[in-house]
User: Fold Glutathione S-transferase from Guillardia theta.
Amino acid sequence: IPGLRDDKVELFESGAILLYLSDKYGESNTPEKRADAAKWIVWANAELDGVLFTRDIEVARAPKVLMQLDAILNGKEFLVGNQFSVADVAVASYLLFIPLFHPNFDASRFPNVLQYMDRCASRPAFQKTMGTNALQ
Assistant:
């Protein structure tokens, strides 16, 4: 369970932590930007958690969910405003577990998702945290 203590603020749950950090450090400086990030954080927790952390990813709704995400990512670098944000932290953190938990899953059907995963995994903070071979 992720947790954060920042001065007098104590939080748990990754989505709450991401929204707090975004609010505190100015990424979500308008209600519209906050809502756009929040929808992806909630979506990741509601949709990706249940379909990716299962024994049989093909039987779960994963292909349908990934097909939808693939269409959304068509022509986009990132999810919100086409720049890396807490929305990408939320979504990519789930997606980047696919190779680890489902090494035989053929994700080639979702080229935009694969490219997005590569973009997120190539960020210096990801490399520092997870290592350079995390997607292999």
Remarks:
- The two ends are 25 Å apart (CA to CA).
- Helices lie at 14-24, 31-52, 62-73, 86-95, 98-101, 111-121, 124-130.
- Residues 3-130 form a domain with the Glutathione S-transferase Yfyf (Class Pi); Chain A, domain 2 fold (CATH 1.20.1050.10).
